Amino acid sequence: MQQHARQGDWGNRWLTTNEAGSGPFILETWQAKDVLRMKRNPHYWRPEAKLTRVVLRHFQESQTLRLMLAKGDLDIANNMAVADINALRKDPAVTVDSVQRGTMYYVAMSMKEGHFANAKVREAVRYLIDYQGINKALMPGYGVLHQRPIKAGMPATLPDPGYRLDVARAKKLLAEAGYPDGFSTTLRVLADQPFLNIAIAVQSTLMQAGINARIITGTGNQIYGAMRERRFDMLVGRGGSGMEPHPHSSLRRWSITPIIAMRQN
């Protein structure tokens, strides 16, 4: 990697279109937002891969994925809309698998400055999300309602705090924070499902208390990059809770960031 480093970037720019991994496949071709082709790595240090090639295609529309799966043009698909997943459940030639993982869908608010630096505003937003509605209409096949940072069923998981859509309570909190008529803000989100539909649902309920959230869509680098650099107001995202099945692995992901780590050093 050092031979590809430029201006102290540790080869990061080179890795944008290249790879330096040691896995069972190596990069063959890559076209952004279109296709990624990998071939079997002849130098892999473990038993060779069963497949000779793997092709990953990017499709924006969930319905396109459903139709291609049904026709046999795709072997595996993800990030599909609930309606398309349910339609595929009726196809005997297609298997739909759902496995509970430790990742979490969330709404983030920047506490750096502005409206969300006020704790009462953040508390108000907690009561401006229709958790039950989102869970029922948008999340089947994606997740279950859970309002704690530790994965459900894991030791040390506490009972949910019971946040629910309560517009009257949210308006009272906003008035106490100095925003009786609400305010305008932005809501960043990936242009994929179920993220976009979650953002639209949140935008709708925020408006009931006068918060006008303009949705900004983008790629992972654009959305999560803005969050890491603290250049955002609100964001709908998904984060991992660690690979280890332990409460510490979950909490560490949410409590330690590179900025905090620098300050600790």
UniProtKB/TrEMBL annotation:
Gene Ontology, cellular component aspect: cell envelope
A Pfam family that the UniProt record links to this protein: SBP_bac_5
Chief place where the protein resides: other
GO annotation terms (biological process): peptide transport
InterPro entries in the cross-refs: SBP_5, SBP_5_dom
Domain Solute-binding protein family: 6-254
Family: Belongs to the bacterial solute-binding protein 5 family.
PANTHER family named among the record's database cross-references: PERIPLASMIC BINDING COMPONENT OF ABC TRANSPORTER, PERIPLASMIC OLIGOPEPTIDE-BINDING PROTEIN-RELATED
Protein name: Glutathione-binding protein gsiB
